[in-house]
Structures are given as C-alpha cells and as structure tokens.
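Reminder to self: tokens first, then the designed residues, so the page reads top to bottom the way the pipeline ran.
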C-alpha cells in the first residue's frame, strides 16, 4: 500500500475480527477498526485484516499499536470488492502494510497459526510537486470560473482515463478560449498529487487568502470522463437521489442542471453521482464554493439499468483498468470523451458569459482551512478505505 514501511519479517499470522463468508454489503466488516479488536493479539505476530468500515490507516495503526510486525489487509469479498487491494494509507506507517485479494485473504484465514514471510521494499521521502494553473487574461477578475483535472496517476499505470481524459479536455478548452474575450475570468487548474490524497487541490484552497477564495464563483471538476464501460454521471449538486453524500453548496444544483440540459439536448441519458469527496472538488465544497462536474465511473459495477441507458456491459466495472497498468490510450472510450468534452466546453462558455453565476453573490465567510486540512485529508483521496 502507498505509505507502507519497509521491512522483512517472518512471524505467525493472526486473524483479527474477520467476517467470513463476507456480509452482503460493503463495510459489513469492521476488522481492525477498534483497538478492542486486538484483545488477545500476540505482539510479534502478523495481523490479517479485512477491508471495511474505516480507513486503512486506522486498521494499520491499531495493528501496530497492538504489536503487529506487519499487516495484511484483504479485499472484503462483495462483488466489486474481490481484486487485489492497492490501497493508500495516506500517511507513513513504519511497518509493512500490504493489500491482497479476497481469495488470498480467505485462504490465509483458513490457515490459523501459519508462519508468513512478509517483505516490503519501499521509499518514503518528502518531495516537491507542482499544480499547473492557467489564468485567462480576459474577464472580471472578481468573478472567477474555475475548473480542474488532475495530472498525476497512481504508480501502477499511466492513468490515461484517470485522469488524462479530463486533463486533455481542459487543455483543449484552455487553448481554444485563451484568445477570446469573456465577461467572467476563466481559470484552469491541473492538480498534482490527487492520488495521494488530493494534496494539490487541498494545498491550493488551504493557502488561498479569503479575498481570493471569495472571487471563485464556482469550481468544475473533470476526473475520469472517458471510461471504457462508461455512464454519463453528473455530480449530484442538489442531492436529488436522496442518498449518500449531501448536496453541494448552494449553486451546485444549478450546475448539475446545466449539464443535464446539455445531455438532454443530445437525447443522451445521464445519471447522478455523489459528492463523496473522492476528487479535487472536495476542498472547494468544504469552503462553500458551488461545484459540479462529470464522471464516467471507476471501479464500480455497471447496473443493468445503466446498460439500458448507456450501452456497454452490465455486471462489469465502468473502468476495468482503473488504477492499473492497462489504463493506457486504449482504455479511452472515444464517444464518452467526445460527448463529455462538449459538455465541458458548454459549461465553460456558458459560465464565461453569464451575468448571474450559480450560488449567492456573496457567500458566508468560512472558517480558516489550515486547521481542518489534515482531517479532511484523512477522509479524502482515492483508495484510502
Ligand atoms: Zn482521478
């Protein structure tokens, strides 16, 4: 897992509060989430844990506190949660922490007292990285229309859908609109270190003076817009599906409606997707900036209902190469990229010229972000749970 320590240990394997066979829904297991799970754990053993309920870092830290010399976390076992885990701890841990598939974990759980050899060889140091931010020379500098995509990929692969797709759409748009005078001011961001926990966008928002923050009237996010088994998902700004994450800040509903209007005009079906904090809009909605954007799906499984609307294959991931080496140019769906780039261009042009941008003209002041950035980081970012 990202942020695992290095180590080479041979020790007895000990299961901790596993749910086998797995429960019917994700996060039935809370293996390792509480210190109490480790009552009876023998210090010096290797902890075998199951994905679910809390972040990987919580499981790893509880195991380490109980004296584990290494941690193996296996996928929980429901559909879509069986592959080898490539998790992200979000902060350094000094012992080896590795992820594995449900099948391997299930097999290990059936071998009580087995002696395991766990070896990790990791590098952990502090590095500098850069967001790339381009400001148009046109438009009212007090009314900034901002959009963003992330430049980095996971180490496992080149990240062409995640997020070369959004990056390319943003670049095409910036080139096209850079020469054209607009009423409002366009700002394009290409974020760094999204996959390590939204580090680039968190840093940007946390270090933005309040007066500059107030000028950003909306933020549009494009992370994975050309998945091979795509669905056209729009961030659920008004929480119209009534489940999962709450609505976005006031004005997010209007952004969702604009995208809906675009897809409706093409007679193209669409659906909603929660503001679950898994991409760079997270820091913006936390400070009350209206947000929206598009997403064609990651490791989630396409439903039969979605296959009826979008085509493709039900029962298969939207992006079967999500965070893997095969996320290459061959992983891009041309239709999804074309339709979504049109949506991205439409939103940019509409908001570049709108007299009345989404949300209140003056937003209530928000608390300073610096104190909350670390806490936010623990719930944000991909693959940390
Ligand atoms: Zn991404």
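Designed residues (385 positions):
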């Amino acid at each position: 897992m990202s942020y695992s320590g290095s180590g080479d240990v041979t020790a007895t394997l000990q299961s901790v509060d596993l749910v086998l066979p797995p429960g019917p829904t994700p996060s039935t297991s809370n293996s390792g989430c509480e210190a109490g799970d480790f009552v009876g754990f023998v210090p010096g053993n290797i902890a075998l844990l199951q994905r679910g309920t809390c972040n990987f870092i919580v499981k790893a830290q509880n195991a380490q506190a109980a004296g584990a010399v290494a941690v193996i976390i296996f996928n929980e076992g429901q559909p879509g949660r069986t592959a080898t885990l490539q998790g992200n701890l979000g902060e350094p841990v000094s012992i080896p922490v590795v992820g594995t598939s449900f099948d391997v974990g299930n097999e290990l759980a059936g071998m009580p007292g087995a002696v395991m050899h766990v070896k990790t060889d990791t590098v952990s140091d502090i590095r500098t990285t850069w967001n790339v931010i381009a400001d148009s020379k046109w438009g009212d500098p007090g009314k900034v229309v901002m959009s963003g995509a992330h430049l980095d990929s996971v180490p496992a692969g080149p990240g062409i859908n995640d997020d070369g797709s959004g990056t390319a759409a943003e670049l095409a748009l910036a080139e096209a609109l850079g020469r054209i005078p607009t009423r409002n001011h366009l700002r394009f961001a290409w974020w760094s270190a999204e996959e390590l926990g939204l580090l680039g966008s968190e840093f940007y928002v946390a270090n933005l003076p309040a007066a500059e923050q107030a000028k950003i009237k909306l933020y549009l996010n494009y992370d994975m817009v050309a998945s091979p088994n795509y669905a056209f998902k729009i961030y659920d700004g008004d929480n119209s599906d009534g489940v999962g994450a709450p609505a976005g800040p006031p004005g997010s509903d209007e952004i969702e409606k604009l995208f809906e209007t675009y897809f409706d005009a093409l007679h193209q079906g669409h659906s909603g997707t929660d503001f679950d904090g898994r991409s760079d809009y997270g820091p913006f909605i936390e400070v009350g900036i209206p947000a929206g954007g598009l997403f064609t799906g990651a490791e989630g499984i396409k439903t039969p209902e979605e296959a009826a609307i979008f085509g493709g294959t039900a029962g298969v991931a939207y992006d079967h190469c999500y965070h893997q080496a095969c996320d290459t140019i061959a992983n891009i769906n041309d239709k999804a990229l074309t339709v979504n780039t049109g949506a991205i261009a439409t939103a940019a042009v509409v908001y570049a010229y709108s007299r009345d941008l989404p949300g209140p003209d003056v937003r209530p002041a928000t608390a300073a972000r610096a104190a909350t950035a670390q806490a936010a980081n623990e719930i944000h970012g991909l693959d940390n749970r």
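Residues 7-120 form a domain with the Glucose Oxidase; domain 1 fold (CATH 3.50.30.30).
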